[in-house]
Design goal:
Structural class: mainly alpha
Number of helices: 5
Helix content: over 70%
Mean pLDDT: 77
Shape: rod-shaped
Order of helices and strands: HHHHH
Low-confidence stretches: none
Largest sheet: none
Radius of gyration: 44 Å
Distance between the termini: 74 Å
Number of strands: 0
Oligomer: single chain
């Protein structure tokens, strides 16, 4: 294969490959940075949800054992934690319906004055039972990555595979095409010395010139 011809078709392929890889790396860095930031927000969300659930249960426990002048303070703490849990609920995808119902029933029993140790334990177990699955689900998302990020990784691997196959096929096809092209023979001009005319046969000398 002629090196000049190989360089002619190889140069655009190299430039295309470098440009594509650079663009893909830039896009990957942006997507990974965003995914990490979203995961941080979700982790903070999980931590705050845990704190408020625990704060609501602790306020209910304190309310039950507090005197009348201290119960208002504990009830306000319970209401604040319950309100934050309510505001975190996604109206389009409810995950905390059972937990919210358990907190609402707990507050109702607080105000009715019917909350004893057995009822308090029952409400606490209900919050634990219904709160752990969504917390675990969100933690799994943090660990494994957001849904859209997993889709991006699949699409990225598919695009890279297709690009590699196309590039490899192009190189192989071009190599076979260049190998099958007959080369034109180079005719060299032969330069030789000018030939002189052959000398005529020498005639015998005449008698007069002897």
């Amino acid at each position: 294969m002629d090196l000049g011809n190989a360089a002619t078709w190889l140069a655009p392929l190299v430039a295309l490959t470098i440009g594509t890889v650079t663009a893909l790396l830039t896009g990957i860095n942006l997507v990974v940075s965003k995914e990490n930031k979203v995961s941080e927000f979700r982790q903070d969300w999980i931590n705050e949800q845990r704190k408020d659930l625990a704060a609501a249960l602790a306020a209910a426990q304190a309310y039950r054992g507090a005197k009348d002048d201290k119960r208002v303070e504990q009830l306000l703490a319970f209401d604040a934690a319950q309100a934050r849990v309510e505001l975190r609920e996604n109206p389009n995808k409810e995950e905390w319906t059972d937990v919210r119902a358990a907190l609402a029933q707990l507050r109702s029993d607080l105000l009715d004055g019917t909350l004893d140790d057995a009822k308090l334990a029952k409400h606490r177990d209900a919050v634990f039972q219904h709160g752990r699955p969504p917390l675990k689900k969100n933690w799994t998302v943090v660990k494994d990555g957001e849904t859209w990020f997993k889709s991006f990784k699949i699409a990225y691997a598919t695009v890279i595979s297709i690009f590699i196959l196309i590039a490899a096929g192009w190189m192989i096809a071009t190599a076979f095409q260049m190998r099958g092209t007959p080369t034109q023979p180079v005719h060299k001009l032969k330069t030789g010395k000018p030939t002189l005319p052959a000398p005529s046969p020498q005639l015998p000398a005449s008698p007069a010139t002897r």
